[in-house]
Each structure stands twice: as structure tokens, then as C-alpha cells.
Prior knowledge:
mainly alpha; disordered C terminus; transport; 473 residues; MATE_fam; MATE_MdtK; single chain; globular; MATE family efflux transporter; transmembrane; 17 helices
Amino acid sequence: xxxxxxxxxxxxxxxxxxxxxxxxxxxxxxxxxxxxxxxxxxxxxxxxxxxxxxxxxxxxxxxxxxxxxxxxxxxxxxxxxxxxxxxxxxxxxxxxxxxxxxxxxxxxxxxxxxxxxxxxxxxxxxxxxxxxxxxxxxxxxxxxxxxxxxxxxxxxxxxxxxxxxxxxxxxxxxxxxxxxxxxxxxxxxxxxxxxxxxxxxxxxxxxxxxxxxxxxxxxxxxxxxxxxxxxxxxxxxxxxxxxxxxxxxxxxxxxxxxxxxxxxxxxxxxxxxxxxxxxxxxxxxxxxxxxxxxxxxxxxxxxxxxxxxxxxxxxxxxxxxxxxxxxxxxxxxxxxxxxxxxxxxxxxxxxxxxxxxxxxxxxxxxxxxxxxxxxxxxxxxxxxxxxxxxxxxxxxxxxxxxxxxxxxxxxxxxxxxxxxxxxxxxxxxxxxxxxxxxxxxxxxxxxxxxxxxxxxxxxxxxxxxxxxxxxxx
Length: 473
């Protein structure tokens, strides 16, 4: 029997689509803005020369390996606040307490990261990096690390606004931070206006300034804006809420580890590609940059679906959970179908942004990158699916098992298979990309399986009819 949707059901799906798009596009652009901050630093490092660029990239990669865990941890505030607002739309006290404990968690995780990052040079020397590069990278990290705490504070406040479905202010502040970061870093790097030329350290201090700017700018909006100031998110900052603090860590630690598993598998892939050859590594970097840019869209949609599912979860609205999840899944994978088509049918259009396709010197790299993009087309679909799928499950505050899926898919399947195909067959660099795509596909399938069986697994419970009607009103 064919199920026909009623006008009421169609209206509910369309309302969910509008809500997801309204919440999702600022989060997508905010992700792009964060990437622009990193890109501006890379540009400045390149102006100093290849040595500074190499040291800066080395330091950034090491620092980001620790930062990504902190980002995942504080992202737990988003589903927690969304659940509270779903349970009680005008909740103030519970939302304020969650924000407060999120800020506490920022301080807690920052201290050990600072201790480790301060010894960045020693870590880089221990893993076999050249002494001069390790010294310069270590000095850069010692400046960069102080941007960690204000940046994590900013993310907590951004999660607060996202859960309120008002992400536009965070986007606005993030866009303003791009020229602030570039201007401050440039002045301190070259020594303008009578200031000493600090080189890489100046770029790191520029990041500190932009991070403080983002935090203070968003804090000012929250304190002054009539829609936000009633929450008094900074009130009684010293008051503990230990059960809520433990819940945040219970949800957030698996998110942080999941992100680390994903980031480190790409770091490992780059190192393996470097063992194959310089041309393969260059082609890999270009193809991965294209894929990473496209990934900003499902990543932003994944953040939006966490809020939408979390609100329905808090209201115990099982139908709302279903609509929120599948709407975002369709948006995320639908966009990736478009980008995958471009990779298959117009690769030169994409590669021309990074390389002169008419220069014979680039012929080998372009041919390799075009081949990688064929695999990346499949990569796009499963990467978008796993990113949105993870966001769907996070809305249900289900993070521990997805973390295990990520560990198995990336490190149990993706890396071993990629290594085997790259060095045990004639596939070489293509083998590494097949491994990456296979690992992502495994994670995406496992995430989707868990979402499909969410009721049987007890991840979500239907609410009494009066509760659902109150949430929908």
C-alpha cells in the first residue's frame, strides 16, 4: 500500500525545511569564515618564505591536533541547550547553567593543552622533525596557544545562539574577525607602526587578537541584545553545577575523540602520500582542499541538525526528530551530489583555481589530481552522509557509540586498506584515496544504521500527544 502524505504532514515537512535552511546557512558561512582565518595566516606565512611556511604549517598541524578535541568537547553545549529549549521553550535558568558549565569546561581543557603545547618544540624533535623547523614551529605554537581559551569561549557562545536558532550574530562577528586577524598579524609580522617585526610569532599573536575579538564581540551582543540579555549567561559564573558539568564531559569527550580520529586519519594519509612522491603529495593537497571546501556545507548542516533534532528530542516529539533528521540528511547529501558531479564532469574547472592547467610543468600533478577527484566524488557523498549523520545522533545526545564507529571506520578500515592498496598494489596514491573513501563509507553506513534503529535502541521516545502539540504550537 502506498502511503500518501496529508496536507498537514506536507506542511510540517516544509516548515522543517525552512527552519533548517534558516539555521543552516549562517552556520555554513561561519565554517567558511573560520577556514578563511586559517587561510589568511597561511598566506602571510607564504610571504615570509618557504621556511616560515613550512614551520608555520608544522606548528599549526600539531596545535590543531589538540584544539580539535577542545572544539568537540564544547560542542556538547549545543545539543544540551537545544534539549532544554525543546523541553521548555522559554527556559532561562537551565540554559544559563549549561552555558556556564560550557565555559568552565573551556578552562578545564585549556590548561593541559597549554602545558603540552608549551613543549611543542620537544614534541616535534621527538617525532623526527628537523631542528630548525622544530624550533621555529615551537616558538609559533607558544604564541598561538593563548588563542585557545577565547576561541573556545566564542564557540560556547556561538552554540548558545545556534540553539536559540539565532546564529546570524556569530556569523557577523566571524566575518569581521577575518580583516582583524589579517591586519593584526601583518602589522606584527613585518613590524609596522614602530612595532618590532616578530615574524611567525606575530602571526600567532594576530590569531590571539582575533580570537579575543570574536569572544568579546559576541559576549557584547549577548549582554546588550534584548533577546539574549535576559539569560544573564555570565551571571554567577563561580557557581558550580557538577551533574551538568559531568554530563557535558560525558557527551563532549566522545565528540572530541571522534573529530580527532577523523582529522588524524587525513594527517596520516598526507604522510603516506609524501612517501610515494612529491607530485602525488601536491595533487593530494589540491584534491583534498577542494573536498574540504565542499565539506563546509554538510558540516554546517550537521551543526544545524543537532539543534533541530535536539529541540524535538527535548520535547519528546518522535515525529519531529524524524523530520529534522531526514530533512538535513537530504540537504547535506543532495549538495554533495552536486559537488561530486562537478568533480566527475568538470575537474579542470576546479583544479584551475589552484594550478595553471595550461602550464606543462603542472601536467603530472593535474593528471594525478584529476584521478584523485574521481575517487573524491564517491568520497563526497559518504563524507557528507557521515557528517550529517553524526549531527543527527548528537541531537539525541548519542556520542559514545558513534565515536567507536569513527575509530573503527577510519583507523580499522580506512588507513589499513589505503596503506595496503598504495604500497601492496600498483594503485599508489589512488589506493590511499580509496582507503579514505572506504573508511568514510563504513562510518556513514554505521551512523545511518544507528539512526534507522533509534527507536529500538531506545535513543528517542515518543511523547504524549499534548506535549507534541505544545511543542508544535
